[in-house]
Amino acid sequence: MHAFAIRESRVTRQPSPITGRADLAKRKRVLRWQRDPEGMRLRILEAAKQEFSAHGIGGARVDRIAQKAGANKRMLYYHVGNKEDLYLAVLEGAYEKIRAEERELDLEHLAPPEAIERLIDFTWNYFIRNPEFLALLNTENLVKAKNLKRSTKIKSMHSPFVEMIRDVVQRGVASGDFRVAVDPVQLYISIAALSFFYLSNSATLSVVFGRDLLAREARDERLQHMVALVLAALTGKSTALFAKGVKEKPAKPRSPAHHTA
Amino acid sequence: MHAFAIRESRVTRQPSPITGRADLAKRKRVLRWQRDPEGMRLRILEAAKQEFSAHGIGGARVDRIAQKAGANKRMLYYHVGNKEDLYLAVLEGAYEKIRAEERELDLEHLAPPEAIERLIDFTWNYFIRNPEFLALLNTENLVKAKNLKRSTKIKSMHSPFVEMIRDVVQRGVASGDFRVAVDPVQLYISIAALSFFYLSNSATLSVVFGRDLLAREARDERLQHMVALVLAALTGKSTALFAKGVKEKPAKPRSPAHHTA
DNA sequence: GTACAAATTAACCCGTTGGATAATTACTGT
DNA sequence: ACAGTAATTATCCAACGGGTTAATTTGTAC
Question: How confident is the model at residue B238, as a pLDDT?
């Protein structure tokens, strides 16, 4: 079938750009490789992620995962395991990924208000870039986190954000930027909540409000609102932006107040 | 089977408390009725709500709904329709219910800060009292709100909250209680978000943070935090409560406007 | 009480689905 | 060249799941 074509087109180990005539044969062999366990596994995991995040656990179809991965169904069991194993692997991968990116964000070097803004910005954009993550979390919560619970791997991956926030808040209070000490966990949850809910529920909310919440403008407005809300609460200074349709650059067209027709 | 027992125990039309001897016969007949379309339909819908909210669309089992409703499977199709119809009916019921309760909340008579606090309190407690609603919304968003979109019924049910908030914010700004005018839609979403995310994701979050977020204390703390966060942002005054583990009234069990046990 | 409609049940149908078996193919070390 | 192992495929199947058919029971009208 076309399985072969797919296999050829998706090369996991990219051949080195500068290729001497000597290893041309070898390279050709690599491209033609029928067996590629690593690549296969990755493709399976990616396909499974798509499937589970698009349809939930109950709605996911093992056959579809195989098809999307360009693999025989048997391969799923060979490389990963049954449906449940497949799901757990996807979930673990999702947590690994976000934790990795979180770690790269250092808020320590920023002034407290900027650090908070950065944090919100990161969270927001991470969710936008990884919509499957949102869906997976919802899916996992539907089953009361039973898979997360049995994953020692995930349980050992602590988010660095709580400590980061604790530090930032402490510094902010000390410097006078912030007026009050907030519980870092609560603040972390709140910041995640503001982005998560908006994006995860954008479909129903868009219908209810009769406008596309994922449109460029709407997204920008939302980010602005969230930053303003949190910073206003922390600093006590109303960061201008916080006002209704107000933006300090009045030249721009922008629809001021007529939301919800 | 025990279907009969269930049918007898769950009476939908409650008999009037004062019952004359005259209609005793009639009443007895009612109680013995094998046929009870209304009651049956309600039980089916309730069972379907449980099933869909517990397992999602793909994970829901029609047989299980029938069983839970104490009905024959054929009855589902007879009274409501196929699985899809069943789901839509549940979704519509859920929206009807929250809209109805929302309408009863009048914020117009309260001072702006109290109105906001009341609003947060209501939202929070409604979600706690109706966990299926959260699950249903997530489920519906998983399918990109496709069912919501085709429900003219739901689309015609506008939440009164946006206008309520608009009014409250306007009054707040006028009275000087609030410093800035916020977009009511954004504020509405934010308030919903703070509660929704916490509760909807409490399972995974509890694992990640290693503590039960649904425990009494944790819930109280969360409500406190949310109110403080939003009010601080709006008023500019840091409502003390906002501080870490601080509660200024150590004696009182807290819960200012708790109209929900 | 008898005819008629409404409500309810039992049993079955048949495509789907997760999973398993066994055979086949591609690569590896020697 | 060859044996042995790893990867992959084709095929099958038993259970399940949504939905339907046809009969049966129960109440109602006359």
Answer: 74
What would the pLDDT profile of B178-217 be if each residue is shown by its tens digit? Answer: 998 899 999 999 999 999 999 999 999 999 999 999 999 9
Residue A192: the pLDDT is: 98
Q: What is the CATH number of domain B106-261?
A: 1.10.357.10
The residue among A117 and A250 whose pLDDT is bigger is A117
The predicted model gives A8-23 an average pLDDT of 29
Cβ–Cβ contacts within 10 Å for residue A10, how many?
14
Cα A137 to Cα A53, A128, A155, B60, B174, distances in angstroms: 9, 14, 14, 19, 42
N- to C-terminal Cα separation, chain B: 37
Share of chain A above pLDDT 90, in %: 72
As given in the structure block, the two tokens for residue A84 are: 């449940």
Check residues 14 to 33 of chain A and report those whose beta carbon is under 7 Å from nucleic acid strand C.
Answer: 29, 32-33
B75 touches strand D (CB under 7 A): no
Contact between B141 and A138 using a beta-carbon 8 Å cutoff? yes
| pLDDT at position B170 over 90 | yes
Query: Which 3 state secondary structure label does DSSP give B72?
Result: coil
Q: What is the CATH number of domain A95-261?
A: 1.10.357.10
Measure the CA–CA gap between B116 and B130, rounded to whole angstroms.
Answer: 21
Domain segments of chain A as ranges: 1-11+35-81, 95-261
Residue B242 in contact with partner chain A when CB distance is under 8 A = yes
Of B140, B194, B244, the CB nearest to A183: B244
Q: Which of B58, B155, B204 sits opposite A141 (nearest CB)?
A: B204
* Span CA (B15) to C1' (D29), Å: 25
Q: What pLDDT was estimated at residue A237?
A: 82
Chain A contact present for B247, CB below 8 A: no
Environment class of residue A100 by beta-carbon count within 10 Å: exposed (0-12), middle (13-18) or buried (19+)?
A: exposed
DSSP-derived 3-state class of residue B118: helix
Q: Residue A206: its chain B contacts at CB < 8 A?
A: 145
Q: Report the CATH number of the A1-11+35-81 domain.
A: 1.10.10.60
Indicate if the pLDDT at residue B134 is higher than 60: yes
Report the b/e string of B86-125 with b at 16+ CB within 10 A: bbbbbbbebbeebeeebeebebeebebbbbbbbbbbbbbb
Does domain B1-12+34-81 sit in CATH 1.10.10.60?
yes
Cα(B242)–Cα(A112) distance, integer angstroms = 18
- CA atoms of A25 and B39, how far apart (whole Å): 76
Rounded alpha-carbon distances, angstroms, from residue B195 to A5, A118, B111, B198? 49, 23, 22, 5
pLDDT of A35? 64
Model pLDDT for residues A207-229, shown as the tens digit of each residue: 999 999 999 999 999 999 999 99
